[in-house]
Amino acid sequence: MISAKGVAAFSAKEPLGPYSFERRDPKDYDVVIDIKFCGICHSDIHTVRSEWGQANYPVVPGHEIAGIVRAIGPKVTSYKVGDQVGVGCFVDSCRECSYCQQDLEQYCSKGMNGTYNSFEKDGVTPTQGGYSNVIVVDENYVLRIPNSIPLDKAAPLLCAGITLYSPLMHWKAEPGKRVAIMGMGGLGHMGVKIARALGADVTVLSHSDKKREDALKMGAHHFVSTHNPQVLKEHRGKFDLIINTVSADINMGDYFELLKVDGALVVVGLPEKPLTIHPFPLVMKRRSYAGSLIGSIKETQEMLDFCARHHIAPEIEVITPKEVNTAYERVIKSDVRYRFVIDMATL
Ligand code: NAP
Ligand code: ZN
Q: Is the pLDDT of residue 270 over 90?
């Protein structure tokens, strides 16, 4: 076994703290990765606080993993020692169902094997995530990070980047389309940059006025502060696509009215409580309300290459592992510009 050290949550209420554990020795197709950086996603916080159901403690969170290949199993062909690689939100899937066969492993019929708070393929060994110094992953679930993207900035692409890239591609954000991004945190700010690069007209819908300047600098064409719901009335019937990245419980009713006929509101944010909606605004204008989960391995690789080509990277604040608990508090207060990334060198 390979000894690993990291930062774990031991219950929903306690702060995270140091934790030592073991990773499996590499099997034929495994890649051993020295983790250099790991992003903090709001999903880490929902999970360790058991907001989505009871977590399986101890939990080492982290699914925005960037590092360097330390060793490879004897049959690995895609990677070699020294390569820049990444791991996102899942580390395996059944590989046999129709979704896995169509490069949609995130929707695997048997459920993908999540990077943490889930189980390895054996169904019994808990998976542990990237707030740690090393991880062992099958080569088919490892991503190649283009050399032009520094590892600290690459990390958030593995979840925040792909979670916005996938729906923007699926619902065709492109020139001539008006796209709004609700919530400009880790996910939202990547949405702004990617939608802009795809040629769409981009609006940020933010719950305060604090991020206006940043949003415009990142490529948004328009910024709307939604703290006064009256403001939304001025934007009715405007958008082809709205992507909701908000992590908190909010009233969705007002937002459907912002869509054109046939427009779609796609939710990626996963707050603790259900979002209630009234069907009228959907029915009256044939609007759609949909959801989207991260992206497949193939699409994540496509997104990484797209970001390299378009010189797109997240805005990050690099922290030490000791600062994780304060970072969590700041994420909850929307006081993150725009993704915390943990530097594992100081573990
Ligand atoms: P984040 O960095 O905390 O961003 C969330 C944003 O929501 C905040 O920056 C803020 O934007 C807005 N917000 C927060 N509290 C609010 C409130 N009370 N009222 C209105 N707006 C509020 O979180 P994240 O890491 O981007 O993740 C966002 C959500 O997506 C989380 O629920 C996460 O679990 C989920 N997620 C889903 C997927 C998926 O595959 N579907 C993948 C990753 C994460 P403004 O200040 O601009 O309003
Ligand atoms: Zn995430």
A: yes
